[in-house]
Each structure stands twice: as structure tokens, then as C-alpha cells.
Design a protein that fits this description.
Layout (H helix, E strand, L loop, with lengths): L2 H17 L15 H17 L2 E4 L5 E5 L8 E7 L12 H16 L7 E7 L12 H7 L17 H7 L17 E9 L4 H5 L3 E7 L1 E10 L3 E2 L11 H18 L5 E3 L3 E3 L6 E2 L2 E10 L2 H22 L2 E10 L2 E2 L2 H13 L6 E4 L5 H4 L5 E6 L15 H20 L6
Parallel strand pairs: 3-4, 3-5, 5-16, 6-15
Antiparallel strand pairs: 1-2, 2-4, 6-14, 6-16, 7-12, 7-13, 8-11, 9-12, 10-12
Bound molecules: glyoxylic acid and manganese (II) ion (MN) (2 copies).
One manganese (II) ion binds next to loops.
Length: 417
């Protein structure tokens, strides 16, 4: 078996071990700050320590391990991905990038490669944003763009983000101290499963990301009037759920028929005080809209809002539209992508370029550092689903390409920014 396959086996073994840590039995759920999340994070920290990295947990809850260059004044090259998950997740989304990244650093140490930059491996704590509906909490802290107001946000149980940070040993007032200063970044590299079908359909193991789509997350609260399911005539109801249902279907129609580069998803629907014999009085739902074109995203957001207002007006329902988060598209660094393309060719694969519809921690980091991402093929592009699967040989391919990339980076003279 080739060296890359042996290393891929170790990466997969660790991915499996991390996947065994979950909030619920029989599935993988590790949302930010939960006991399972902390247990998983401790495992990753142990592995970083075993590799010889200097580790620490920062205030938001990222695990960070550093390998120092002989040059104390060197810049830092960050290799990272996330270890939080969606609910009932697959095992590769996030952990692949952290654990393949760890393998990459182990290889640097084993091969005694002299690195002219510090390397920092980061296991980000919240990329999915499932608990607080806000993405990139961990990477925002490292990029220095964490908005302190976010700490007032509450999860479904009413616990605030600030309280979770404190419970886990962090201090909201010190979050800014964890940022890497703009001038200290050399670059950022993330290995991640594609989460889409392009590489699978084209039978190619890895691809280069050129850009990451912009996204908008909104919370809508539809308030009607709860009532008796048996007594209130149909034409006298203010049914919040029926209103939300109409909105959901109209939003789907808008995204499909607009033929724009736009996707819209309502993934969360919460009926307040649900009962089979009560007309739903209040419904809260999420809305996730994405586009690689920021202008299309903004204008679509406005159009969908207007549509929601019209539907609510017609039905006598009150609407609260709350923008939770809006992120710009991220453009990957051309210089680093050139190295990545070269590394893919050297490994014997065709370089394919892709735009990511999924969000990644590279997005906030791109505001302060050049970023590059390597996508790895996953089975039929399935992700955010326990059926998510990556073949061992594709992990080996990603390792081979990433080794080449590091070797190129050691010789790389980045343009002055
Ligand atoms: C994260 O996976 C996202 O794209 O929402
Ligand atoms: Mn991810
Ligand atoms: Mn994800």
C-alpha cells in the first residue's frame, strides 16, 4: 500500500473516532459548545499534542495547534476546517479538513521540512451555525470580525451565546485578542468535501475552489391568532402555519423560475404551542438564500421580503423579518490557486475549478488573508446527511496534492499586499 493510502487510513480512523462522539445516540450531532462538542474537541487537541503541536483553546472555543518556524518573525500559514456538525450529519463535513490538515503537519515534522512560516492548525468551533443560526463564529474570531453583539443571541433553550462562551471557559471581552493580525497572515488552506456532485459526475478526486457563494440568513416570525380547530370557520382564521406554507412554496417558485444563480431554503419551521386541535397562532421559520453574485442575492432578498409581506397582508398575519447574517462572496487567492493547480497536475490529476455553493470558514478569513481550498469528491455529492461518504483513495489523493502544495508554498514568494 502506498504511503499516501496508509496516511489516508489513519485520517479516516480519526474521522471515525470523532464521529463516535455525538449529542444523540445513533447519529452524528455535535453543535457548538455542547458536551459532545467539547469531548470531540478534546480528542482533536490530544491528537495535535501527540503530533508535537503547541495547543490552546481560544475564547470562542476553537482548538489551535502551532508548529513554529525557525524564523521567529515569520508569518503564519493557517490550515483549518471545523468540527461542529449539523444535526444528524455526515462524518466528513469539517473533520476531513482538520484531520487531513493534522496529517499534513505530521508529514512536515516527519520529513524535517524547514518551514519559513509558522503553521497553525485550527479546528473551528462553529461553521454550521446550527445552534445560534449564525455561521462562522470560530473563524470570525480568528479573522477579527466577531461582532460582540452576537453574544446576546439565544439558542432554542434560551441560553445566550455569551453564556455558552463563559460556561466553556472563554471570556467575551477577550475574543478580539484571539485574532491573527492581518499583517501576520501568510495564507489559509482548507481541505473540504465538495458537498456537490461535480467531481463525482466527472470522476475526478479533487478540485480547486475559485470562489464561495454569498449567503443571507433570515428569521421570519409569522403571527396570526391561535384558535379552536373545530369552531373557527375557515374564512375567519388567521392561521400562521398556512401563511408560512404559502410563503415557503412561493419562495421555492421564485428561486426556480427566476432562473438566476440563486438557491433558497427554508430548513427550520417551528410552530409555537403546536396541537392537532389548535389553529397555529405563531410560526418561526428560517430562510437561507445564496448566490455567487452579491447583487442577485441582495435584490432577491428584497423581492422575497416583499413577497412575504404581501402574503401576510392578504391573510391578516403579522410578519417580523429579521436579518441574522449576510456574508459577501469570497474569492480564493489567484497566486495560491496557481500553486494548487500545479500540485494537482504533479499528483497526476486534471485540475478542475469549482465555485462553492456551501459556506466555509474561508469566507471570513478571506477578508484578512489570501485563502485557498481543495475540494474532495464525495459520493454522489451527498452532504449534510449521514450518507455522506468519501473513498479512502480520494483522501489519499487529497493528501498527495496537499503535500505538493506545502512543498511549493515553502518556496513561494507571495506578492506584497
Ligand atoms: C455549511 O455547510 C453551509 O454551507 O451552510
Ligand atoms: Mn463544512
Ligand atoms: Mn456543513
Amino acid at each position: 500500500m502506498s504511503d499516501h493510502l496508509t496516511r489516508a487510513e489513519k485520517v479516516l480512523q480519526r474521522i471515525n473516532e470523532l464521529a463516535s462522539v455525538s449529542e444523540d445516540d445513533g447519529c452524528i450531532t455535535r453543535t457548538y459548545g455542547t458536551r459532545a462538542f467539547i469531548e470531540g474537541r478534546n480528542k482533536v487537541e490530544q491528537w495535535m499534542k501527540q503530533a508535537g503541536l503547541q495547543t490552546r483553546t481560544d475564547n470562542i472555543g476553537n482548538i489551535r495547534g502551532r508548529l513554529l518556524s525557525g524564523n521567529a518573525d515569520a508569518k503564519t500559514f493557517v490550515i483549518a476546517s471545523h468540527i461542529d456538525t449539523v444535526i444528524n450529519a455526515g462524518k466528513f463535513d469539517g473533520p476531513l479538513g482538520v484531520l487531513a490538515g493534522l496529517d499534513l503537519i505530521e508529514q512536515i515534522i516527519r520529513s524535517k521540512t524547514e518551514i519559513p512560516f509558522h503553521v497553525e492548525l485550527i479546528a473551528f468551533c462553529d461553521e454550521e451555525g446550527c445552534r445560534f443560526h449564525t455561521t462562522y463564529l470560530g473563524s470570525k474570531a480568528v479573522a477579527g470580525s466577531f461582532d460582540k453583539q452576537l453574544s446576546d443571541k439565544r439558542d432554542a433553550a434560551g441560553i445566550s451565546l455569551g453564556e455558552v462562551i463563559k460556561q466553556n471557559g472563554g471570556d467575551v471581552n477577550n475574543l478580539s485578542k484571539d485574532a491573527i493580525a492581518k499583517e501576520d497572515w501568510l495564507g489559509y488552506f482548507e481541505i473540504h468535501i465538495e458537498q456537490g456532485p461535480v467531481l463525482y459526475e466527472r470522476n475526478i478526486p479533487v478540485g480547486v475552489v475559485t470562489a464561495i457563494a454569498a449567503q443571507c440568513r433570515i428569521e421570519l416570525i409569522f403571527t396570526g391568532e391561535a384558535g379552536h380547530a373545530g369552531t373557527v370557520p375557515m374564512d375567519m382564521r388567521k392561521d400562521a402555519l398556512a401563511c408560512a406554507a404559502e410563503f415557503i412554496l412561493e419562495t421555492e417558485k421564485f428561486a426556480i423560475t427566476g432562473k438566476k444563480k440563486l438557491v433558497a431554503t427554508i430548513g427550520k419551521l417551528h410552530i409555537i404551542n403546536p396541537a392537532s386541535n389548535v389553529i397555529p397562532g405563531q410560526v418561526i421559520c428560517s430562510l437561507d438564500i445564496r448566490s455567487e453574485d452579491e447583487n442577485i442575492l441582495s435584490s432577491s432578498c428584497l423581492a422575497i421580503k416583499e413577497m412575504a409581506e404581501n402574503i401576510c397582508k392578504k391573510r391578516g398575519i403579522n410578519l417580523k423579518w429579521g436579518l441574522i447574517q449576510q456574508t459577501k462572496p469570497a474569492i480564493c487567492d489567484k497566486g495560491m490557486n496557481k500553486l494548487l493547480v500545479q500540485s494537482i497536475k504533479e499528483a497526476g490529476f486534471d485540475p478542475v475549478e469549482l465555485v462553492s455553493g456551501a459556506g466555509h470558514d474561508a469566507v471570513p478569513v478571506s477578508e484578512v488573508s489570501p485563502v485557498a481550498m481543495l475540494f474532495v469528491r464525495c459520493f454522489k455529492g451527498i452532504s449534510h446527511n449521514p450518507l455522506e461518504e468519501v473513498e479512502l483513495k480520494d483522501i489519499a489523493a487529497a493528501i498527495k496534492v496537499s503535500d505538493n502544495f506545502i512543498q511549493q508554498l515553502v518556496k513561494y514568494k507571495p506578492p506584497v499586499r
